[in-house]
Amino acid sequence: MNEINDFKLEILKEIRKIEKDVPIKWDRVIDMDSIVQIYGWIPYNKGRSDFILITFEKYNSEIAIRFTTSSVKFSEKLHNNLMGEETKEGYTHCIKFRKYFKKYL
């Protein structure tokens, strides 16, 4: 039980780092023991929001962290907050589901 609490506290610590200066509204958590995924929304324009998904995966005493977002505006800031360094990769463009599969739908 203590190991689970430690994992949750470590996740919360990382969440606090990533949300610095980014207006994230956290929404859902999926807990699969050694993998925890957290979904949230980043408001940007008149009730519209971009999504954010962070995955925490526990390997023994290490925790791997990955995230993805549809926010062009905050993508680099989120990376810098989480990784503690600037990214050189920039934003990876995402495409709406219907547009991506429009030929097949």
Brief rundown of the structure:
This protein is α+β, with helices and mostly antiparallel strands and 105 residues long. It is built from three helices and four strands; from the N terminus they run αββββαα.
What does this structure look like?
The protein has one domain. Strands 1-2-3-4 form a 4-stranded antiparallel β-sheet, with no helix packed on it. The protein is globular and about 50 Å long. α1 (2-18) crosses α2 (75-83). The model has no long low-confidence stretch (mean pLDDT 89). It has 105 residues and is an alpha+beta fold. It starts with a helix and ends in a 5-residue tail after the last helix. Helices cover 29% and strands 37% of the residues. The protein is built from 3 helices and 4 strands; from the N terminus they run αββββαα.
Keywords:
29% helix, alpha+beta, four-stranded antiparallel sheet, 105 residues
End-to-end CA span:
47 Å
Order of helices and strands: HEEEEHH
Calculate the mean pLDDT score and round it. Answer: 89
Q: What is the helix tally?
A: 3
The beta-strand count equals 4
Spans of at least 5 consecutive residues whose pLDDT stays below 50 are none
Task: Give a topology summary.
Blueprint: H1 2-18, E1 25-32, E2 35-45, E3 48-59, E4 62-69, H2 75-83, H3 97-100
